Amino acid sequence: MDFKFYFCCLLTRIFLFNGCAYNKGLDQSRITELGYSEFLDIENNEFSGGLDNDFSSNSGRRFLSDQDQNQQPSHIVSDPVFESFSSGVLKSGSDSSLNALYTENKSLPSIEPAVNVDPIQVKQDKLDEALGICQEAQEDWKAGNSEMALELLDRAYELLINVETNGNAEIFQQKEDIRFLISRRIVEIYASRQTMLNGKHNEIPLIMNNIVEREIKSFLGKEKEFFLASYSRSGRYRQMILNELQKAGLPERLSWLPLIESGFLIRALSRARALGLWQFIPSTGYKFGLERNQWIDERMDPVTATRAAIEYLTQLHKIFGDWTTALAAYNCGEGTVLRVIRNQHINYLDNFWDLYVHLPSETARYVPRFMAALHLIENPEKYGLELPVPMDQVTYKEITVEKQIQLLDLASKISVDKKELIDMNPELRYKATPNYEYLLKVPIDKSEIALASLDKMPAWKPPEPQYVYHRVRRGETLSHIARRYRTSVKKIARANNIRSYNRLRIGQRLKIPARGSKAASLANARPGSGFKTIRVRKGDCAYDIARMYGMSLKEFLSINNLTKRSVIYPGQRVLVRIR
Questions:
Q1: Once rounded to an integer, what is the mean pLDDT over residues 90-112?
Q2: CA angle 217-219-223, nearest 5°?
Q3: I need a labelling partner for 2 at 20 to 30 A (CA). Which of 33, 156, 260, 553 fits?
Q4: Which band of pLDDT confidence, cut at 50, 70 and 90, is reported for residue 419?
């Protein structure tokens, strides 16, 4: 049809629409005839429709009653020119008269221009919402509604997976943190469910499979000597461990865990610097109250370490809900096990054997070895194993010591074997009591004698550390100097108050700490005790100096803390025998 015809129709409709909007007395039949009845409330002569229902619709069709639609010509119902014009006006918001019209009438919202949205802020809002949902889930779980808590965690995870990081490190880290939080919450909920279903888990299940059988064969083969020796040593501490487990309400089978951890050796030290019966690393020991200072290390105290281990195991069982997974976490840390669970991309794996192939190799063997030990200890006849008689339990009485004393001196005073007294107090790092009040363990029948002897014993004074002196030469480093004097860089730095290991000056004089036999040799080799100090001259070597002063090369090297590979320099001071 002619374009002019459409344009006239458009102007007419706009005019009539404006009249409908402002003329409150407009005849109802006229409004209906024009097809605008859906926009006005007939009784109140006010707008009742919405912009989205008319101009913003994809089809551009008005909402007419069935009667109106049947009566209106097709060009009124669907008008392409009108649709394109009205759509453009509403989308751009450029027509000020229409915008003012809709703004004046309260039933129609004003048309706002499009607002630019920051995509980073959108992602941040989603992460904040997911975190809020996690908090709601925690509250529901505490209130006993675990089903609702799981539903909320599912919602939080759904929000989380829709957040794309696109290389943004901050968004990525927040997303990972919330993912970890969700996985941990799910673990806790399922653990609490299993605890409610199965009680307090008073027994550790005795599992048998091909993995456990392989460890049994190892204990009966190449590790048989270790297994029997460990079983024998268990008699010294196992009754004490059983007593502590019973107080805490934990399974008695856990008393055999030190057999796998340390072989019931109180001073066992692993490659990871884990120490004692229960193999605590320093940070975990500190977390559970094990003191470690210059004089004592409570990781080697069987009683204190046992209580800390029980506290740790109890905490792990509350997290995971079953003992096999809790034991795996005891070996490698709960964070490692939770990461393995999280990476499975399913709600929760509550069976250690589901995790087995994903755990570190040492941890993967840890639980099967424990199960194998239980099978052999509880059914030795089945495997043709003859268990040795356990050692006697360590019994003692604690006495208060208010001054520093050496255990060797006390042992001689009370006629006790020194090894026995030292083994009763393995936490004492230097076989001496600390410089503060301390509870010392002594044999029960020697407690009174020990108390009487303490009053007569003088306080022990730790020996002053022995030092030799070294002047720094060009090209030398602390590492080189430490190797030469058979000490550590850390000790040299501490003795000389050095904070930066790379800042040495040529000609700087360093104190080099020495200990043990070397310290004694150096102390005895001071001027005035048959030895004197000389300066090395250019061209001198250790062999020539030793021969010149009537010494063997071995003696010269020993008193100067040198080796055959050591290099001496012109100007260096060395000790020689007075001729």
A1: 45
A2: 120
A3: 33
A4: very high
Q: How far is CA 467 from CA 86, 175, 257, 460, 487, in A?
A: 95, 55, 44, 21, 11
Indicate if 13 and 92 belong to the same structural domain: yes
In degrees, rounded to 5, the angle at the alpha carbon of residue 149 between the alpha carbons of residues 145 and 155 is 150
- If asked whether residues 8 and 41 sit together in one domain, one would say yes
DSSP secondary structure of 463-530: PPPEEEEEE--TT--HHHHHHHTT--HHHHHHHTT-S-TT---TT-EEEEEE-HHHHHHHHHTSBTTT
Q: Does any domain span residue 113? A: no
In this predicted structure, the answer to whether residue 91 has a pLDDT above a threshold of 50 is no
Same domain, 86 and 34: yes
Q: How many CB atoms lie within 10 A of CB 138?
A: 17
Q: Which domain holds residue 506?
A: 463-512
* Mean pLDDT on 22-43: 41
pTM for the model: 0.54
Domain count within the chain: 6
Whole-angstrom distance, CA of residue 69 vs CA of residue 376: 90
> Which token pair is 104?
């004046």
Q: Is residue 506 predicted with pLDDT exceeding 60?
A: yes
pLDDT digits (tens, 9 = 90+) for 332-378: 888 888 888 777 655 444 567 777 777 888 888 999 999 999 999 99
| pLDDT confidence band for 138 (50 / 70 / 90) | confident
- How much is the pLDDT for 400? 93
Q: Can you give the CATH number for the domain in which 306 is found?
A: 1.10.530.10
CB atoms within 10 A of CB 115: 5
Of 427, 131, 414, nearest in space to 285 by CA: 427
Residue 275 DSSP label:
B
| 53 and 77 inside one domain | yes
Q: Is the sign of the CA dihedral 212, 217, 222, 223 positive or negative?
A: positive
Between CA 517 and CA 164 the distance in angstroms is: 64
Indicate whether 20 and 65 sit together in one domain.
yes
SS (H, E, C) 68-82: HHHHCCHHHHCCHHH
Instruction: Based on the residue annotation, tell me whether 170 is a catalytic residue of this protein.
Output: no
Q: Of residues 261, 298, 334, 427, which has the active-site annotation?
A: 261
Quote the CA–CA distance of 313 and 288 in Å, as a whole number: 11
Residue with tokens 């250019």: 538
DSSP string for 162-216: T---TT-HHHHHHHHHHHHHHHHHHHHHHHHHHHHHHTT--S------HHHHHHH
- Residue that finishes a domain, picked among 38, 70, 104: 104
Co-location of 534 and 567 in the same domain: yes
Positive or negative: CA dihedral 187, 190, 194, 195: positive
pLDDT value for 512: 84
Structure tokens, 180: 């970890």
